[in-house]
Every structure is written in structure tokens, then in C-alpha cells.
Amino acid sequence: MYVHIGDDILVRAIDIIFILDKQTVVSSEITKEFLINHRSASIHAENNAYKSIVVTKDTIYFSPIASNTLKKRSYKLMV
Question: What is the pTM of this model?
């Protein structure tokens, strides 16, 4: 099953490792460092505005959809 994370991007639900809220990224130095170190594996939203970050084993997606919405979408597919 796939989760729509915005900007016409679908990610396999089983490949999602975690979903971060934008506020977590802004307030955490460790998270910022992680994103800087994995910049080459990042895919940004079309207008660079994001509300959440979806991390898979291969890619980091900056999503314009809120983390709670993405959580609900992925949870429905896993149950």
C-alpha cells in the first residue's frame, strides 16, 4: 500500500521509518544535523514549503501535508 505525501508523490507505507513535524526540526539541533548530513537524499516540496518530513530507508521527503494527517493515512493502511 502507498501513502500520498503531497506533490503527487506516493511512498510505500512499509518503507516509512518515521514522520517528523516541522516544529521538531526547527527546535532540534540533532535533527538539523541529520538533515544536513543526508541532504543528497532529500526531495523538497515544489515551493520549498513543508509541514512535515517523511524519512524512508533511501530518501527524505519534505511534505506539504501535516504530520498528523500523514500518520492517519499510513495507520489506515497498516491496520
Answer: 0.83
